[in-house]
Amino acid sequence: MEVFVLLLSSLLTLSSASLKEKIPQSEEVTLEDRSPETTPNRSVLPPLTPADLQRNRTSKSTLTRHQSLAPVWVTMSGSVPSSAVFIYNPTRGTDYVCRYRCLAGFYNPKLGHQCHYPYSGRERLGSPFQILVRRGAVNWKNGSFGLVPKNSVRTCNEMGLFVGRVSYGLGMVRAANKACFVPRNGHEFVYRHYQVLTFN
User: Fold this and answer.
1) CB-based burial label for 183 (10 Å; 0-12, 13-18, 19+)
2) Going by C-beta distance under 8 Å and a sequence separation of 6 or more, which residues neighbour residue 109?
3) What 3-state DSSP class applies to 55?
């Protein structure tokens, strides 16, 4: 048994030495300068298993096919694109879904070349801005208290901000604040019951 352990130990030493010779110095990997990936509460994430990697590949390809139907944000320049998402507002006419940075609101050509969006208690104006253009069917579905239906249109990836509306006009749903915020007459109005734009 001792001979076997000695032989195994010698083989490991020889194989690691031959590996060192084959790997150029510049390609050696050191872990000293790296910190492990952590979660928001600073706990270390476990390494991915082959099953996790396969699941990630599958979900990404499914997401890509599914996302091909999602509306896209297009920088506004010149006239409004023909497939821009809009609503009819009884007081102003046609309002288009717009966003300034990540904040959704409305654009109405009659009111100037700016996106009207809610922020910090007021109606704000932003330019340059983007218009939402549909690539497939879109629908308005009911939501309330921060809840949004499946396939809701986000104003930005990885953020809990969604395109919303109430009877008074377009705005954005902030899931964390459990409400839809709508710009109107210089103010930001808060609604707990609203509709969210979704895609099929």
Assistant:
1) buried
2) 80
3) helix
Give the predicted TM-score (pTM) of the model. Answer: 0.67
With the C-alpha atoms ordered 132, 141, 103, 66, is the resulting torsion angle positive or negative?
A: negative
Among residues 3, 5, 183, 4, the alpha carbon closest in space to that of 98 is found at 183
Q: How far apart are alpha carbons 169 and 171 in whole angstroms?
A: 7
- Residue among 176, 168, 101, 185 nearest 145 (CA): 176
**Residues linked to residue 100 through DSSP beta bridges, in sequence order:** 103
Q: What is the pLDDT of residues 3-32, one digit of tens each?
A: 444 444 554 444 444 444 443 333 333 323
Question: Hey, CA dihedral for 92, 94, 96, 97, is it positive or negative?
Answer: positive
